[in-house]
Design a protein that fits this description.
Number of strands: 19
Helix content: 25-40%
Structural class: alpha+beta
Number of helices: 14
Largest sheet: 7 strands, mixed
Distance between the termini: 22 Å
Strand content: 15-25%
């Protein structure tokens, strides 16, 4: 009989870490993956450089994981972002800090991170089997007993760790296989939705491609609900595309757009872009009025060159109903007021997002209230563990999702190994 202490299903970020941790804690481990290459999503993350973690303090890290981040407090008490840095340093892959606490390998190559993790997996005595899809997780009398493969083979183990990811970036192997296995064990799967995904819009300036390809640096984006209340405000970079809005801050807004559209499917969602977040409306008004007084004969389109990129000028002037040839002296107070409104709150209406397959992260998944946060052990089935994106945990880009994957992976592997050892001793 093919029997191991622990079977890990999925050779992505969390699965590799779970395998390594289980092996390091004395378990015999079998790692199964349906693809032919392990760590594929990790290898393409961070633009091929792999944003391994974020070194911010735990409270701040959790703030950047709006999808059930608080669940991770207990997980982080066992293994956290600082432990990740030490883990890779011990493997000969030191990390360096960049902007906003993001940690990258000194090599600037994601592949060096993947190779180091794979090396640790092999050194931990893990048996790796690729090109083997799992059909079912096997349960018997309230306990996990193993897995059945697509080819009909069965492998047995006292503990099974489900680390198969969500439904985003499916070409890396994440196709949502784990949800059915979890449901069969009695788990609730919360509704799946795309997060960290570009926004779509049929707004005139998008449809007419007026700003396609224009990127904005250090702006502020506000998502407004149907009553005009701010749901979230994010500051950073964004990009206008042929279908809507993209770039880091647009992606961060996506989950709030999805939830608001679900509440009010008949309404598009207002996104306000503050082009001058460093200035209050009063300060910008004073600055612009001074410029107008000093240059009464200059056309407004020329004055605006001091404030905006070339392609933004006609859009903002049109929104403010100011003909381009208007001189500063002929600018009415109403036009000035509307111009300032558009500089501080350029509104684009978005009607949704790209599909979950185009998202960087899957929202929803195995309900976290049904999983022990300090061990990743199922509350529904003995010997069943979950880690990574199959759980209903999602964060912003910036190293937060990979931190959740690595930490839940480590804790699941360690806990599974310790549970099997405890059963053996009893």
């Amino acid at each position: 009989m093919n029997k191991k202490d622990v079977i890990v299903i999925g050779g992505g970020t969390s699965g590799l870490m779970a395998s390594a941790a289980a092996g390091m804690h004395g378990a015999s481990v079998l790692l199964l993956d349906k693809g032919n290459k392990l760590g594929r999503k990790m290898a393409i993350s961070g633009g091929g450089r792999c944003n391994v973690t974020n070194i911010k303090e735990i409270d701040e890290v959790i703030q950047h994981i709006p999808g059930n981040g608080r669940f991770l407090y207990s997980t982080f008490s066992v293994f956290n972002n600082k432990d990740i840095v030490q883990f890779f340093d011990d493997l000969g892959v030191p990390l360096k800090e960049e902007d906003n606490g993001r940690m990258f390998p000194v090599t600037d190559k994601a592949q060096s991170v993947v190779e180091a993790l794979l090396r640790r997996v092999r050194e931990s005595g893990v048996e790796i089997r690729t090109n083997l899809g799992v059909k079912n997780v096997l349960y018997q009398e309230g306990r996990t007993v193993g897995v059945e493969l697509m080819n009909g083979e069965k492998y047995y183990a006292d503990a099974v760790i489900v680390a198969v990811g969500g439904k985003s970036v499916p070409h890396t192997g994440s196709t949502g296989d784990g949800y059915a296995w979890a449901e069969e064990a009695g788990h609730t799967i919360t509704e799946l939705f795309p997060t960290e995904v570009p926004l779509t819009s049929s707004d005139k300036l998008i449809k007419e491609k007026m700003l396609q390809g224009v990127s904005l640096r250090d702006v502020s984006l506000t998502v407004r609900n149907a009553k005009g209340k701010a749901l979230v405000i994010h500051r950073g970079d964004m990009l206008f595309t042929h279908f809507g809005l993209s770039g880091p801050m647009a992606l961060r807004c996506s989950q709030f757009v999805v939830k608001e559209r679900k509440k009010h499917p008949e309404r598009d969602v207002a996104i306000e872009i503050d082009l001058f977040p460093n200035l209050t409306l009063g300060q910008l008004t004073e600055q612009l009025q001074q410029n107008i007084r000093n240059n009464p004969k200059r056309q407004m389109k020329t004055i605006m060159k001091e404030y905006l990129t070339e392609r933004m000028i006609p859009v903002i002037l049109e929104r403010a109903q100011i003909p381009e040839e208007t001189t500063a002296a002929h600018l009415s107070q109403v036009q000035l007021h509307t111009l300032l409104q558009n500089l501080k709150a350029l509104t684009v209406y978005v009607n949704g997002t790209l599909s979950i397959e185009k998202a960087f992260v899957t929202g929803g998944g195995v309900h976290v209230k049904e999983v022990h946060p300090k061990t990743m052990h199922s509350k529904k089935m003995q010997g069943l563990f979950f880690c990574g994106e199959v759980l209903d945990i999602h964060g912003y880009t910036g190293g937060y999702n990979i931190t959740a994957a690595l930490c839940t992976g480590y804790v699941a592997g360690k806990s599974a190994a310790e549970l099997v050892q405890e059963w053996k001793e009893n």
